[in-house]
Amino acid sequence: MRIWTPRKKKNVIGRIVTANLSEGERYFLRVLLNHIKGSKSFEDLRTVNDVILSTYCEVAVLYGLLSGNNYSESCLTEAVVYQMPILLRRLFDNVLTLCCPTNPRNLWDKFKDFMMENYLHNGISQQSAEMRALHCINSFLKGVGKNVTDFGLVDFDLNVTDDDSFP
Questions:
Q1: Residue 104 forms part of a structural domain
Q2: Complete DSSP assignment for the chain
Q3: pTM confidence score
Q4: How confident is the model at residue 97 (pLDDT cuts 50, 70, 90)?
Q5: Residue 93 lies in a domain
């Protein structure tokens, strides 16, 4: 028979569920919970130098938790296991716009095969599949006023019209 007994040590968080970068604030909250010790409330997590910031993303950026490719790369590595290529392309768009990775081209080179997997599966050539994946990412980036050349993914200009639809 099992009997519940209170913890003898301090109260601690026993489990933190995974969160995807595309989940926005939930992801940044998870990053903060994993790195900031001693916080007693959500407001406490958003406080930096006695200033309460409005988002967890801002806090993570100020603490330097999102700089570099480490978090972007680990997020994409986790997503590759269970995401479809279209969702990986959407996530990659979010990584580019929210995390400001230090070397987006390296991230693209490392994960492009996963992002264009559905095109390759349909018998499209490697080069054509890569262009379609870039067009798809570019169409997502267009929504925030950016394009793939802003991140150095290609050395030429990719134009996406409203008629272009690359799932």
A1: yes
A2: -------SS-----------GGGTHHHHHHHHHHH--S--SHHHHTEETTEE-S-HHHHHHHTTTT-SSHHHHHHHHHHHHH--HHHHHHHHHHIIIII--S-HHHHHHHHHHHHTHHHHHTT--HHHHHHHHHHHHHHHHHTTT--GGGGTS-SSPPP--TT----
A3: 0.59
A4: confident
A5: yes
Q: How many domains does the chain have?
A: 2
Q: Are residues 46 and 90 in the same domain?
A: no
Q: Are residues 37 and 91 in the same domain?
A: no
Boundary of a domain, candidates 10, 33, 62: 62
Determine, yes or no, domain membership for 162: no
* pLDDT tens-digit map of 85-96: 999 999 999 888
What is the domain extent for residue 84? 70-151
Per-residue confidence band for 160, with pLDDT thresholds at 50, 70 and 90: very low
What residues does 51 pair with on adjacent strands? 48
